[in-house]
Design a protein that fits this description.
single chain, 96 residues, alpha+beta, Alpha-Beta Plaits, 2 helices, 6 strands, globular
Length: 96
C-alpha cells in the first residue's frame, strides 16, 4: 500500500461529478454538490460536517495500487482540475 495526499479545492469544484464513478470508495458529492474525500473508518456524515464551510479538504490516504490508479483517474476526469494529488512525504505535486 502507498500513501497519497489528496486535496479537493472546494472553491474550484463545480459539482459536475465525473470524478465520483472513477473512485466511488473515496470521492462523493455532498449536498452542495462539492466533491468530498472519504476516509475509511470515518463516518461520512461527520466528514460532510467537517468540510461544509471549508475551501479545501486534504486527506492522506493509504491506498492499494488499484486504488491509487482510481484516485488519479478521478483527478484526471475533473474538468475544472479541482483535485490535486501530492506525495505526502516529499510534498511533490503529482497531479495536475
Amino acid at each position: 500500500m502507498g500513501k497519497l495526499k489528496v486535496v479537493v479545492d472546494r472553491t474550484l469544484c463545480e459539482g459536475i461529478g465525473v470524478c465520483v464513478p472513477e473512485a466511488p470508495k473515496y470521492i462523493v458529492l455532498d449536498k452542495k454538490h462539492k466533491a468530498v474525500i472519504l476516509k475509511p473508518g470515518k463516518d461520512k456524515d461527520e466528514i460532510f460536517k467537517e468540510v461544509l464551510e471549508k475551501k479545501r479538504q486534504e486527506e492522506i490516504l493509504d491506498l492499494t495500487v488499484d486504488e491509487e490508479e482510481d484516485i488519479f483517474r478521478a483527478a484526471e476526469a475533473c474538468p475544472v482540475k479541482a483535485i490535486f494529488i501530492y506525495d505526502p512525504e516529499t510534498g511533490e505535486q503529482l497531479y495536475p
